[in-house]
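Letters spell out the chain; the tokens describe the backbone. To illustrate:

===
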Amino acid sequence: MPRGDKSKYTDKQERKADHIAEGYEKRGVSEKEAERRAWATVNKDDAGGKKPGGSGRGKHTGNPAAHKGGEMGGKASASRSAAARSASARKAAATRKRSAEHRAHS
């Protein structure tokens, strides 16, 4: 089987790769690079391509890549000063209060 042959992947794995690639393309990654990253993610999650076996009860993968996002966030917030975060929180609270009053009068 030549490198890059996708015949051993299940339909579900192909759908997963398409969905991941779409997400990368929306963020400005080139189509070719998005495709490469998507298949790398599928391989990481599912340990490569495989044919479905038996009655459709495969081994659950846990989808580790899908749970990575939350760990990566927070850098922007952490780099802001406490005063800036506090001011932002006060502004948000005031907006929520205004919105609630607006809804109450409608």
